[in-house]
Amino acid sequence: MRPDAPQVLATVAMDLHEERSPNRTLAALTRHAWHLVGTGDTGLLTRRPDGSMRSAACTHRLVSRAHDLQIRLADGPSLSCMHDGTAIVVHDLTTEERWPEWAARAADLNWRSMMAVALGTPDQRVGVADFYAEAPGAFGPDELELGSAFARHASVALMSSAAEDRLREQVDVSNMVGQAEGILMERYGVDAEQAFAMLRRRSTEQHSELRETAAAIIQTRRASDI
Asked: Which terminus of the chain is more exposed, N or C, with fewer CB under 10 A?
C-alpha cells in the first residue's frame, strides 16, 4: 500500500463527512477513489429503491458505458460483486471467461482490466465502486487493499447521506401536509383530524401520494392569493 495511504484515507473520511447531498457525495466519492488508487478511471454503480441498478457517477464516460452494458446484459463483475459482496479483479478483459459477452464488449471500449468492490454492509449493499484501466494487470494486491479501504469509508458516507436525505424528505412532507391541513381547516371550518381525513380521502380518490395532494392544495391557495 502507498506510504501516505493512512493520511489520504483520513482526508477522504473528513471530506465525505462534510458532504450532505447524495449527488455531491457521489461526485466526491468518484474523485477520491480515482485519486486514492491512482490507476485508470472510476465509477459508482448504485442500487435504486426499487432494486434496479444505475451508473451513478463516473470519471469517464466509457466507465458509464461499461456500467450500462452490465445492466443491459444483467451480467458482469460489478453485478456479481453486488450480489456476493466479494471484491473482484479482472486482470485481462480480452481473456476473461466468467462474463465473456460483457468482457468482450468492455474490451471494445478500450478497457483491459478492472476491479470492483462492494459498498454497504453484508445486510444492506448499496452499490459497487469500480476501477477501470486501459492496461492489463493494472490491479494487484495493493490496489485491492486500497480499494477495499476506500469502500469502507464510501459505504458510511453513502448510507449516511441517504439516511439524511430520507429524513429531510420526511420533514418536507410533514410540513407540506401540515400546511394543507391548515388550508382545509380554514376553508371548511373543520378541526385538524377532520382536515387530515379529507386530505387522505382526496389523495385516495385522485390515486396520488399524500404529498402530491397536499402540494396541489397549497398551490391552489397560493394561486387564489395572487
From this structure: C
